[in-house]
Design brief:
The structure holds two protein chains of two kinds.
Chain A: H1 2-22, H2 25-36, H3 39-55, H4 66-82, H5 121-130, H6 133-144, H7 149-156, H8 160-184, H9 190-194
Helix pairs in contact in A: 2-3, 2-4, 3-4, 4-7, 5-8, 6-8, 7-8
Chain B: H1 3-8, H2 10-14, H3 20-32, H4 34-54, H5 61-71
Classes of the chains: A mainly alpha, B mainly alpha.
Chain lengths: 195, 72
């Protein structure tokens, strides 16, 4: 009887875990699409993420942030599988994390915020997908998924300061891409730029 | 707070990662400084746009079924 009860408890725990995990399918799939930029690869990545999650179910602590845990698995798989290893290259981060703030107010790369209304959704997705992976993943975590800097840092295995500097650089690049698009598509006119 | 300090804190302000005191200082500066306020609007606008545009779409049904078989 005790054995039966134990088995039932085990099955319950597993299906509870599975139910909670599958609740994040859409959000993981969207993240995978942005990372791989390919629907077939995104499917593979998501499937492998769940297989690995199931295998390491024991390391997940009930009541903690499952979404962050799943994203960490997926993100590590992405680098291992598609990029030949997890990034050690910190050249993108450069030195002097906040030096770039000095040039933040760069009028040549700053559309007015009203201009944003005229930008098509697919152009925004394109601009995000053009970011280098190290920058793209932090935008996905913080801006799309709403992770705190702390949770994003845990997922990425980097200090919070690195999250902040990557995010900052990513946003500058996004701002530049969207501005270029707005100019090319006539949403911003050259005459207005000088005004 | 001057413009330089404000700009240094703009990302963390947009991301709601500041302490209440810092948040109030930035808010006060933005209220008094239209150029910084413009930049804040732009930054916040891009963040909103990225969220809305990248948060669409659902996983294919066949993937969901396959995962249900694997998980349950």
């Amino acid at each position: 009887m005790v054995l039966v009860a134990e088995r039932t408890a085990e099955t319950d725990a597993r299906s509870q875990f599975a139910e909670e995990a599958i609740g994040y399918l859409d959000t993981l799939y969207r993240g995978a699409l942005r990372l791989t930029r390919d629907p077939a690869q995104a499917e593979d990545l998501v499937q492998d993420t769940y297989v690995r999650a199931l295998r390491y179910q024991g390391s997940y602590q009930v009541g903690t942030n499952m979404k962050a845990w799943l994203f960490a698995i997926m993100r590590n798989l992405f680098w291992d599988r598609f990029k030949g290893g997890r990034p050690e290259d910190i050249s993108l981060d450069g030195d002097g994390e906040f030096a770039l703030y000095d040039t933040l107010k760069d009028p040549t790369a700053a559309p007015e915020s009203e201009v944003l209304d005229g930008i098509a959704a697919e152009e925004v997705v394109k601009a995000v997908e053009k970011l280098p992976e190290l920058h793209r993943e932090v935008v996905l975590l913080v801006d799309v998924e709403g992770f705190s800097y702390k949770d994003a840092a845990d997922v990425l295995g980097v200090p919070i300061g690195t999250v902040m500097s990557r995010l900052h650089r990513a946003r500058r690049q996004l701002q530049r891409s969207l501005y270029d698009y707005a100019r090319e598509s006539g949403i911003v006119h050259a005459a207005e730029e000088g005004a | 707070m001057n413009c330089r300090d404000c700009l240094r804190n703009l990302d963390t302000y947009v991301d709601r990662e500041l302490t209440d005191t810092e948040l109030e200082e930035v808010r006060q500066h933005l209220a008094d400084c239209p150029p910084c306020e413009d930049l804040y609007e732009l930054r916040a606008g891009i963040k909103r746009l990225v969220k809305v545009c990248c948060d669409e779409g659902v996983a294919p049904e066949h993937l969901r079924s396959k995962l249900r078989q694997i998980l349950f």
